[in-house]
Amino acid sequence: MCLADIQLLRYTWLLWLPVASSGNIKARHVVFPIMKVCRGGITSHFVRNDYLSLDMPIDSDVFRVPPGYNVPQQVHITQGDNEGKGVIISWITADEPGSSIVLYWAENSEFKSQAQGFYLTYKYFNYSSGYIHHCNVENLEFDTKYYYEVGIGNTTRQFWFKTPPQAGPDVPYTFGLIGDLGQTYNSNTTLTHYELSSAKGKTILYVGDLSYADDYPFHDNVRWDTWGRFIERIAAYQPWIWTAGNHEIDFAPELGESRPFKPYRSRYHVPYRASGSTSPLWYSIKRASAYIIVMSSYSAFGKYTPQYKWLEKELPKVNRTETPWLIVLMHSPIYNSYVNHYMEGEPVRAVYEKWFVEYKVDVVFAGHVHAYERSKRVSNIEYNIVNGLCRPTNNPSAPIYITIGDGGNLEGLATAMTEPQPSYSAFREASFGHGIFDIKNRSHAYFSWNRNQDGYAVEADSIWLRNRYWGSSEEASLAALR
Ligand SMILES: *[C@@H]1O[C@H](CO)[C@@H](O)[C@H](O)[C@H]1NC(C)=O
Ligand SMILES: *[C@@H]1O[C@H](CO)[C@@H](O)[C@H](O)[C@H]1NC(C)=O
Ligand SMILES: *[C@@H]1O[C@H](CO)[C@@H](O)[C@H](O)[C@H]1NC(C)=O
Ligand SMILES: *[C@@H]1O[C@H](CO)[C@@H](O)[C@H](O)[C@H]1NC(C)=O
Ligand SMILES: *[C@@H]1O[C@H](CO)[C@@H](O)[C@H](O)[C@H]1NC(C)=O
Ligand SMILES: [Fe+2]
Fold first, then answer.
1. Residues with beta carbon inside 6 Å of ligand 4?
2. Residues 76, 219, 341, 370: which is the catalytic one?
3. Annotated catalytic residue 134
4. Residue 163, Cα to own-chain centre: how many angstroms?
5. Of 62-76, 217-231, 304-318, 453-467, where does mean pLDDT reach its minimum?
């Protein structure tokens, strides 16, 4: 039974939900959306008592290995170059290396091409990975549907993807936003809602914390494999743009594992070299009318560090005539009014916020906090040790900060909030869900947040964004007041 199907009618409700893991029927109490408006903005009290976030058992349908000897599994794709004509296709074979070749062809084309990839393996404590294949398919046509086949040899599987239109200022494009997904029943609801959404997201901007394998004994890397099979139903068909979170670090010297990000970097490749980056943990891509910058909250970021030097050169390169929408992804939020992870993003804010304002970043998406929050357009860049000014103030050049770490992992929701709601916080609610960033043209984009507990088409929060570069100043000041 899907939580989304439940019609909510009264303020308090006693729900009978079958718990699929045990087959039991359990009573649950649901508290209804009571909005509390304070000086800061809206705190939605749509919170469920006893709202468990249970892992799907290891023998669940979503984790099943497809049939066939050495069959490609955990198929996923991401953008493979800077401009959208390349795709990195990755998959795993368990029994033998097999082939790393991808066969691909454009829809309505007789001619099949092939690209040669490679494979790698890694060990983690007493776990040995399967053969992890990565193949970069390059020089595709823009705005074209391609079919592809992997596992040439014994057992083959076919999928498809669509390349984005060539970058341009008024190219409409729709991104999905998901973070901190994990592999619980709630994670499954999040993916299902995204799939069924009428918004029809074309690419997922993923804000970090993928499998949560490190929450299991000995960082059980089998949970990286189950997660890869779980997301395949979307990730094999549309690119997920990866950001590393703290659950990707897998730093465990007590297990003899002291190379940070080993499982993540082995499994999820990104086109970092195409943007002049020296690390897969920070990079950028252009896609349709958006320029997306991925940052690493868990790599050195202070002045003179590789990440700092890269971003310093990267921001002036963004051509807002070609890609008006400038989006930054990072795991740990800069503006967060939940108790959980409160102030963790402060060191990053101190270093980078002034650039976000100077270069008029439109929106910064983050995860980490297992809840949803949207900020007003604020900045806190006036501070110096002498003047003592240290309050976020409305700033029309500042980005909107959106925390969307509510994919549904086993750690559960972050329900405790700092009170009163700070003035920079426009809307906050501790529920699982996903976001949609729908670019209409160079001046307008529509962001909406979908709460899992509603029917999939319901928006619990939404806002029209005016582009920071193309929006008129009048629109900008109106937006600042929202
Ligand atoms: C790894 O070690 C743990 C702890 O000793 C054990 O429970 C687990 O079964 C081992 N896994 C493998 C694949 O050997
Ligand atoms: C899989 O294919 C390889 C190469 O084509 C072949 O050598 C091997 O015997 C096949 N394995 C099985 C189980 O069919
Ligand atoms: C996950 O969601 C899919 C699609 O709604 C459904 O077919 C599947 O049975 C669900 N699996 C579990 C374990 O809830
Ligand atoms: C920015 O992009 C536009 C549109 O693609 C192009 O005409 C212009 O030359 C670019 N500007 C620079 C400085 O590259
Ligand atoms: C951009 O899109 C918005 C929202 O759909 C629309 O109101 C506006 O007229 C569009 N602007 C242009 C120049 O087409
Ligand atoms: Fe996190």
1. 319, 321-322
2. 341
3. no
4. 19
5. 453-467
Residue with the two structure tokens 């329900």 = 415
**Backbone φ, ψ for residue 183 (5° rounding):** -145, 50
Identify the sign of the CA torsion 185, 188, 194, 196.
negative
The pLDDT value recorded for residue 472 is 64
How high is the pLDDT of residue 454? 80
* pLDDT tens digits for range 267-280: 999 999 999 999 99
| Report field, pTM of the whole predicted structure over 0.85 | yes
User: How far apart are the CA of 126 and the centre of ligand 1, in A?
Assistant: 6
Separation of CA 218 and ligand 1 centre (Å): 8
Residues 96, 180 contacting (CB under 8 angstroms)? no
Can you list the alpha helix ranges (DSSP code H) found in 179-253? 185-196, 222-235
Which pLDDT does position 414 carry in this prediction?
93
Q: Are 248 and 276 in contact (CB under 8 A)?
A: no
Q: Which atom of ligand 2 is nearest to the CA of 96?
A: 1
Are 288 and 164 spatial neighbours (Cβ–Cβ below 8 Å)?
yes
Q: How confident is the model at residue 46 (pLDDT cuts 50, 70, 90)?
A: confident
Q: Is 441 in the pocket of ligand 3 (CB under 6 A)?
A: no
| pLDDT score recorded for residue 443 | 96
